[in-house]
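In the laboratory, one determines a bound structure by crystallizing the protein with its ligand and collecting diffraction data. In a computational setting the workflow is compressed into a single prediction: the sequence and the ligand go in, and a structural description comes out. We illustrate the idea with cytidine-5'-monophosphate.
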Amino acid sequence: EQAERIAIDGPAGAGKSTVGERLARCLGYLYIDTGAMYRALTWLALQRGLDPHDGEALGRLAREASIVIGYPHIDDGRQYTVTVNGEDVTWAIRSPEVTRTVSLVSSHPEVRRVLIEAQRALARAGRVVMVGRDIGAVVLPDAELKIYLTASLEERGRRRYAELLERLGHDHPALPSFEEVLADIRRRDEIDRDNMQPAPDAIVIETDHLSVAQVLERICHMRGKR
Ligand code: C5P
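The predicted complex, in structure-token form:
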């Protein structure tokens, strides 16, 4: 099992990052959140004033930019540190502006080609839990274990809102309303749909009524049965 790769896919708010990070920690594997790579590129594109519709320019930016996910211990609630050309953008890539724009940036084949290549390189050595939308179907079609997490739109909205509330606090000016969070997830689902098919051999886990511990338990169970 030295080279095991675990793919976890699903829509926004299905619990991928929480489950993926915990699973990786418990196995001693590398946790790679591919959404952070798309977000980092989006952040840079916004900084540079690029048109998010311009796939060619964005593809070029993706090739030139240095997007790095690292794991220094910084105790401010982060799972990892993302840098773009050396700048720490770990929290900046969670801004409403990036969240609004990331699906459009990610929809360009020129962008996906570059980031998928980088993701495959990160997973080459194995012992990784890779989280995203298309990991099992496209990035690592021969992954040893593929999980597809889902939950209803309402439940995903509740989770995402609770997360923002926890991080920003009640009276933070950037805290969106629950309705805004829901609308954003709905809109991203729509745009992400093409890149969000579960792999035919993925195990689908509907998480609406499951705790994180219960989801982990099921994944470990499936892993044991292989
Ligand atoms: O997972 P997260 O919400 O951070 O992902 C942000 C966006 O990045 C997604 O809504 C999607 O548009 C894009 N993405 C993608 N393929 C992935 C991961 C993320 O297109 N593998």
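Residues 153-168 form the longest helix (16 residues). Keep in mind that any predicted model is a hypothesis to be tested, not a measurement.
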